[in-house]
Specification:
alpha/beta, Isopropylmalate Dehydrogenase, two-stranded antiparallel sheet, 12 strands, 43% helix, disordered C terminus, binds 3-isopropylmalic acid, binds magnesium ion
C-alpha cells in the first residue's frame, strides 16, 4: 500500500530520534512491500529560525494532505529562559493540534518485565502495571484566553470546556476500556473546578452507555499519589489537557524511562504520532537519545494506517532491543548503544525474515555480528 507521511523532526533530539523511525519504517516498507513517501517540514524553534514562524503555512498544509504525521520534539532553552519571548516553539505544536483537530492524545504506559529493576519504584509495585491515558488535547487551560495586565503584575489563563469536547474523547476512552480490563478512571479536580464538575457530570452520564465498564473518579492530587503507590489499579485514564500532560510524565517512571513512551493524537480526520518526551536539548547531537519512544510512535502510526502485522513487527523489534539491552544510556548505563545503533538493530531485526536474530542461540553474539 502507498502512504504519504509528513515528517516534522522539530527541535533538540527530535531529528536524530525521528531518523531512526524513518529507518525502521523503510525496513517495514521493504519487507511488506509498501510505499511510504516521506516529506519533511520545519516546526518549532527550527522553524522560527528558518521562517520566523513555529508552524509555517507550508508545514500545516503538508500535514493536512498527508495520511499521517510523524513528529519529533519541540522546545529550545533559549525560549525556556526567556519568558518575555513573543513567539515560542511550543505554539507550533499547540496550533498544529488545534488546526488538525487532534482532540485525543493516547498514551499507553506499561511496566516492562526486563526493566522492572531499573525503575526507582519497587518492582513489586509496578510489575504488571498496564494503562492507557486518554488526554484531551485541544481544550482547557492550554487554549483558553490568556492575558497579562498592562502593568505586567497580573496574568490569567482561562480554562474552558464544553460538553461536546468532553463527550467526544469520553466515548473513545470508554470504547478503549471495553477492549481492555473494563475500567475507566476520570481524573479531575471536581472539588474545586467548575470545568471538572462538568467533566464528572458528562462522563457519569456517558458511563450509562457502557455498562460493562466500571467508572471511577479520582482527584488529580490523589491520582498523582496513587500513580506511585499503586499504579496497577489503573486501566484507562481519562483526563483533561493539563492534568494529562502532568500525569503522563509521572506515569512514564513506571515504564522505566520517559524515552520509551509513545503517543498518538487523533481526532477529526488527521493523526499525529509523537514520543511524549520533549526535545532534551542537553543531549541533542550526542547520539545518546533513546529512539524507542519515536519508533513505538511509528508502530502506533502503522496500526492507525491499518497495518497491524507491520506494527506488531516493529513492536516486537523494540521488545527485543529492550530484552537484549541494545539500548541507550537511559536504560543501559554500563554498556550503552548510540541512538543510531539502536536504530540499526531495529532495522536488522525487521529485515530478518528468517528469524536469525530472534532464534540465535547466543543472542549476545548474534547482536554483535548484526550491528
Ligand atoms: C507534551 C508536551 C507539550 C504539552 C509541550 C511541548 C507544549 O509537554 O506533548 O506533553 O504540554 O502538551
Ligand atoms: Mg508533556
Amino acid at each position: 500500500m502507498k502512504f504519504n507521511i509528513a515528517v516534522l523532526p522539530g527541535d533538540g533530539i527530535g531529528p536524530e530520534i525521528t531518523q531512526q523511525s524513518i529507518k525502521v519504517l523503510k525496513a517495514v516498507a521493504d519487507r511488506f512491500d509498501h510505499e511510504f513517501n516521506f516529506e519533511d517540514a520545519a516546526v518549532g524553534a527550527a522553524a522560527i529560525d528558518l521562517l520566523g514562524d513555529p508552524l509555517p503555512e507550508v508545514t500545516l498544509e503538508l500535514c493536512k494532505r498527508s495520511d499521517a504525521v510523524l513528529f519529533g520534539a519541540i522546545g529550545d532553552p533559549k525560549y525556556d529562559n526567556d519568558p518575555s519571548a513573543k513567539v515560542r516553539p511550543e505554539q507550533g505544536l499547540l496550533k498544529l493540534r488545534k488546526e488538525l483537530g487532534l482532540f485525543a492524545n493516547i498514551r499507553p504506559v506499561k511496566a516492562y518485565e526486563s526493566l522492572l529493576y531499573k525503575s526507582p519504584l519497587k518492582p513489586e509495585t509496578i510489575e504488571g502495571a498496564d494503562m492507557v491515558i486518554y488526554r484531551e488535547l485541544t481544550g482547557g487551560i492550554y487554549f483558553g484566553e490568556k492575558s497579562i495586565s498592562e502593568d505586567g503584575k497580573t496574568a490569567s489563563d482561562l480554562c474552558t470546556y464544553s460538553i461536546e469536547e468532553i463527550e467526544r474523547i469520553a466515548h473513545l476512552a470508554f470504547k478503549a476500556a471495553e477492549t481492555r480490563r473494563k475500567k475507566l478512571t476520570l481524573i479531575d479536580k471536581a472539588n474545586v473546578l467548575e470545568t471538572s464538575r462538568l467533566w464528572r457530570k458528562t462522563v457519569s452520564r456517558i458511563s450509562q452507555e457502557y455498562p460493562g465498564v466500571k467508572t471511577d473518579y479520582m482527584y488529580v492530587d490523589n491520582a498523582a499519589m496513587q500513580m506511585i503507590l499503586n499504579p496497577k489499579q489503573f486501566d484507562v485514564i481519562l483526563t483533561e489537557n493539563m492534568f494529562g500532560d502532568i500525569i503522563s510524565d509521572e506515569a512514564s517512571v513506571i515504564g522505566g524511562s520517559i524515552g520509551l513512551l509513545e503517543s498518538a493524537s487523533i481526532g477529526t480526520g488527521n493523526a499525529l504520532f509523537e514520543p511524549i518526551h520533549g526535545s532534551y536539548p542537553q543531549a541533542a547531537g550526542q547520539g545518546i537519545a533513546n529512539p524507542l519512544a519515536s519508533v513505538r510512535s511509528a508502530a502506533m502510526m502503522l496500526e492507525y494506517l491499518g497495518l497491524k502485522k507491520e506494527s506488531d513487527t516493529v513492536r516486537h523489534a523494540v521488545d527485543l532491543s529492550i530484552r537484549l539491552n541494545v539500548c541507550t544510556i537511559d536504560i543501559n548505563k554500563d554498556n550503552h548503544y548510540s541512538t543510531e545503533r539502536v536504530g540499526d538493530f531495529l532495522e536488522s531485526v525487521i529485515s530478518d525474515t528468517e528469524g536469525h536474530i530472534v532464534n540465535n542461540e547466543n543472542l549476545n553474539l548474534g547482536q554483535m555480528t548484526i550491528i
